[in-house]
Specification:
By secondary structure, this protein is α+β, with helices and mostly antiparallel strands. The protein has 14 helices and 12 strands. It has a 5-stranded antiparallel β-sheet with strand order 2-1-5-4-3, with helices on both faces. A 5-stranded mixed β-sheet has the order 7-9-10-12-11, with helices on one face. The protein is flat and about 130 Å long.
Length: 631
């Protein structure tokens, strides 16, 4: 039986396809097995990491406990409680990860008991330090009970680590063997497929070569016959064709020239711009200008041709003339078209943006004849681009403001929430061992944290109302001096230390003039003074004095002076922007909203605010408000 070319192609590629399907099946099985093995390897790595996390977290808890034992400061216990919760969380995750390993589960049960005993011992030492002092704590530590428990924890953890590493080694070996088998199968199958395809290609090439040879012989005979016929036909038609061609060509050229002139005239008359032909001289002397010149420049085309009334150089905006000349000269030197955007001044004095594209026309010898170009008005497009740029800048500013707000709120909420959580857990676990004074101390901490969070929310709501224009100004008769003294008493009370009941700062109040009769909006004045006093205290060292002066004449002048860290001059321009904080505040907490609220409130009051500050010396804020804003 004789095989055709189509049969050979089908057979070759059919065999190759079958081989590829076999390779694909084997590859799929090997890949699936390899993925499963890799999952187990990843699982083992997770168990190893969690076991190491347990030991690390216990070590960090011991470090925090030692810090408290050495200093007696409660702040050192915050990391201790955090690590205690972290250990519990990691042990829970280990229990989930070792659900498939009964031996590890039994060891984990023992490990949880040892960890619990270790934290009980750590807490006993903390309680002794808190209740009996350092010497009693030292005696308890020297018993070495905690060290023995920790040694047992490390021993048990090392056993679990050893078993997991052994599992990891076994699973790595399985993965390696699976990968090698898959590679071998794919390589062998691919080589066989290549061999089959190569054989089929050789057979196809052989058949195609024979067919081409036959076709070439047939085509040669056909071409010889066609050549003889064409030669005789051509000889008969040459004379007649040449004559007719000459007549037709002349007629066609004439009609094309006339049509081109009509088209060019129509286009130039309807284009939204101006076409021109000018000389490359200092005035850009125009030789031709289209009718669009009048609408674009306000000048009639005859006014510009040969500079009869004004030259195009004079129409070009003075600030753009050198740029236009440089751009065109560069393009002419490089013998390429130019494309530029610049301004012109119309006959009415209006400035317009134009887009121009043109090129130099050269003679056969290469010399420049004229410059031809077209320009159109793009003033509206430039204005639209400027509007878009401003909108993008505004959007970027809003995005940055949102980012700074999220960062600020997450940071400022974290500290009071940690205080509330820590104090509430201590009260939950140790209130039965503490006296009323110690319980009251932790309750006061919780209350202070809640007040900080409430104040932060109030600041955010207030600045939001101000930004939305919903903050109202409603003055009522008020004893301004009494209001200020009551507010200062509240602020002074807030500076009282929780332990020694002594104020951290001294607030001194001065009054000049009659301030008992004034029209005041307390909702606006309270955040103004509260934020200025809060900042003066926050950024001043403990024991320093904050001076508050109130002067009442035709206006109420409030002056708040502190002895704090001061404000760098580079930050003062942005001082009243929302969420902006000075570069020298360091770790002092704050939202960056206080002075923004002050500025919004003062503006709504139609008052003024100024600041004088020197780094390391102090800051003076002066707020001037009308005493009778209804007058």
């Amino acid at each position: 039986m004789k095989w055709s070319t189509e049969n050979k192609i089908g057979l070759g590629f059919g065999a190759a396809l079958a081989m590829l399907m076999v390779i694909a099946g084997v590859s799929y099985q090997s890949t699936a097995k390899l993925i499963q093995t890799e999952r187990w390897v990843s699982h083992t790595h997770q168990v190893l990491e969690k076991l190491e996390d347990v030991l690390a977290d216990i070590a960090l808890a011991e470090t925090a406990q030692r810090g408290y034992l050495l200093t007696g400061q409660e702040t050192h216990l915050e990391p201790y409680f955090i690590e205690m919760r972290e250990v519990a969380q990691v042990l829970q995750e280990l229990r989930q990860l070792t659900a498939d390993n009964p031996d590890q589960r039994r060891r984990l049960d023992v490990l949880e008991v040892l960890v619990s005993e270790r934290f009980i011992k750590l807490q006993e030492v903390i309680d002794v330090r808190r209740d009996k002092g350092f010497e009693a704590t030292l005696q308890l530590v020297r018993t070495g009970q905690g060290t023995k428990i920790m040694d047992d924890i490390r021993k048990l953890a090392n056993e679990m680590l050893s078993e997991e590493r052994e599992l990891l080694n076994q699973r790595n070996q399985q993965a390696k063997a699976t990968a090698q088998n898959a590679t071998l199968v794919i390589t062998t199958g691919s080589l066989l497929g290549i061999v089959l395809v190569s054989l089929a290609s050789l057979l196809i090439k052989h058949d195609i070569t024979k067919r081409q040879q036959a076709e070439e012989a047939l085509q040669q005979a056909h071409n010889e016959l066609e050549s003889r016929v064409e030669k005789r036909t051509t000889e008969l038609a040459i004379a007649n064709a040449e004559l007719r061609a000459e007549v037709v060509e002349r007629r066609r050229v004439l009609e094309a020239l006339q049509e081109s002139e009509r088209t060019l005239s129509t286009l130039l008359g309807n284009l939204p711009g101006m076409a021109h032909r000018s000389v490359n001289d200092c005035d850009w002397t125009m030789k031709f200008v289209s009718e669009g010149c009048l609408e674009l420049t306000g000048y009639h085309p005859s006014d510009l041709i040969e500079n009869s009334m004004i030259s195009y150089e004079q129409i070009t905006h003075p600030n753009d003339r050198q740029f236009v000349r440089d751009a065109i000269e560069e393009a002419l030197q490089q013998k390429r078209p130019f494309q530029i955007v610049y301004r012109i001044v119309t006959a009415t004095g209006e400035e317009k943006w134009v887009w121009e594209k043109g090129l130099g026309v050269v003679c056969l010898e290469g010399g420049l004849l004229v410059i031809e170009g077209f320009m159109t008005d793009i003033t509206e497009r430039k204005q639209a681009e400027e509007d878009i740029r401003k909108a993008l800048e505004k959007e970027k500013e809003l995005s940055e403001l949102k980012s700074r707000f999220v960062t600020m709120t997450s940071h400022e909420f974290r500290t009071p929430l940690a205080t509330i959580l820590s104090s509430s857990e201590l009260l939950e676990h140790y209130s039965h061992k503490w006296g009323e004074e110690k319980k009251l101390l932790h309750l006061q901490r919780i209350q202070a944290a809640v007040k900080n969070m409430t104040q932060l929310l109030n600041d955010v709501l207030l600045i939001g109302k101000a930004e939305a224009g919903k903050l109202e100004f409603n003055p009522v008769p008020l004893d301004l001096e009494r209001f200020c003294r009551d507010l200062l008493d509240e602020v002074q009370l807030s500076t009282t230390h929780l332990h020694n009941k002594r104020p951290t700062h001294t607030i001194v109040f001065y009054r000049q003039g009659e301030c008992s009769h004034a029209w005041i909006d307390e909702k606006l004045l309270r955040p103004i003074l509260s934020n200025l006093l809060s900042n003066a205290i926050k950024y001043s060292p403990q024991g320093s004095t904050v001076h508050v002066n109130l002067t009442c004449k035709s206006e109420a002048v409030f002056q708040v002076r502190d002895e704090g860290i001061g404000i760098p001059e580079t930050d003062q321009a942005q001082l009243f922007d929302s969420f902006h904080r000075a570069s020298n505040v360091g770790t002092i907490s704050g939202t960056g909203l206080g002075l923004a609220i002050v500025k919004k409130s003062v503006d709504l009051y139609r008052g003024t605010i100024t600041v004088e500050s020197a780094v390391g010396v102090g800051t003076i804020f002066t707020v001037t408000l009308p005493l009778n804003p209804q007058a």
